[in-house]
Specification:
It is a single chain. By secondary structure, the chain is of the alpha/beta class. It has ten helices and seven strands. The chain has a seven-stranded mixed beta sheet, with helices on both faces.
């Protein structure tokens, strides 16, 4: 069952953030964005996942293919900070309900395997929809956090995970599939999916208002002048709409990996447009969990928050950010 604005096999953008300023300011990038706790995966089909501390934003699509254009590298997941779970940063924000409903409706049953579940942001939504969810997560701390919030989790990379006879009607990955080898991951998904079971990997595209992005870029460059990260805002035009133009290589790799396995229907891409409103306080509350800020000394972090807060105050104390959530999905065929 296609989601709204289904684009068939056409590759649309699944941007993890158009630049580091966007990522650092991105608020909701799903629950499981940024996999700095993963091992080096430079040998996989995904380019440029090594050397997170030296990430630089590529200047063109060819550079994307060399470097991966992944500002989330080396970062904790936005909105998912490992700790006691107290405070707004303890749990990630949601994916659009329509997306979850479309995946559930297109799956032949309620048993879901969530790959790279992190602290369980997407998994909890599937549970709320009546699904039974098992998570696979390579980081034990995040797995413990997810367990404390009611999710059963096994600690392993998806490629190395032993399914031990488990079978599922859906395999999902919320902002995590780019950390999985695209062919080996699709093959493992085919192994554990029942016939007609659905593989669905999804990501967000987003763009904060230019005033917020510019304020962050200015203060971050002031407090971290030697940082190699490019934190220039993507646009000086307001309001800014998220784009799906630059991240086609990521979706193409995911779809090509599924096709190469030969045990799925031709991959489709579903698109969901939505918005999220933020007050000054709700935005600042989750900023310290952003990957570019988790290692800042308290005084520098306070300076960043003060500057961004002033920019939001100047906008009237709140803003609404547009998002696009894109799903790469295919159904398991009945052939072996």
């Amino acid at each position: 069952m296609p989601g709204p604005d289904q684009r068939g096999s056409e590759c649309v953008d699944v941007g993890i953030g158009r630049n580091v300023a966007q990522f650092a300011l991105g608020g909701e990038v799903g629950g499981d964005h940024g996999r700095g706790l993963r091992q080096d995966r430079d040998a996989t089909g995904w380019p440029g996942l090594a050397q997170p501390d030296a990430q630089v934003i590529p200047e063109d699509d060819e550079a994307y293919d060399r470097h991966g254009d992944r500002p989330e590298q080396g970062c904790q997941r936005v909105g998912e900070v490992v700790g006691d779970g107290a405070g707004p940063g303890g749990l990630a924000q949601r994916y659009p309900d329509a997306m979850g409903q479309a995946i559930v409706a297109a799956s032949p049953g309620p048993n879901v395997l969530e790959v790279g579940c992190g602290t369980g942001a997407a998994a909890r939504q599937f549970q709320a929809a009546g699904c039974t969810v098992l998570g696979v997560e390579p980081d034990a701390r995040m797995a413990d956090f997810a367990r404390r919030n009611g999710l059963e989790v096994e600690v392993a990379t998806f490629e190395a995970w032993n399914p031990a006879g488990w079978a599922f009607e859906a395999v999902t990955a919320g902002t995590a599939w780019h950390w999985v080898d695209p062919v080996a991951g699709a093959a493992k998904a085919a192994q554990v999916l029942r016939p007609r079971g659905r593989l669905a990997a999804f990501w967000h595209v987003f763009e904060p208002p230019s005033a917020v992005a510019e304020a962050f870029a200015a203060v971050y460059q002031r407090v971290m002048p030697d940082s190699p990260l490019n934190v220039q805002p993507a646009s000086n035009v307001q309001p800014v709409r998220p784009t799906v133009d630059r991240y086609q290589p990521l979706l193409t790799k995911a779809a090509d990996g599924i096709r190469e396995v030969g045990r799925f229907s031709d991959p489709e891409q579903w698109r969901f447009d939505w918005e999220q409103s933020y007050t000054r306080d709700t935005w600042l509350d989750q900023m310290p969990t952003h990957g570019t800020l988790t290692q800042l000394p308290p005084d520098k972090l306070a300076e960043v928050l003060d500057s961004v807060g002033a920019a939001i105050d100047a906008m009237g104390g709140s803003f609404t950010m547009p998002y696009i959530t894109v799903v790469v999905t295919a159904a398991r065929t009945s052939t072996a």
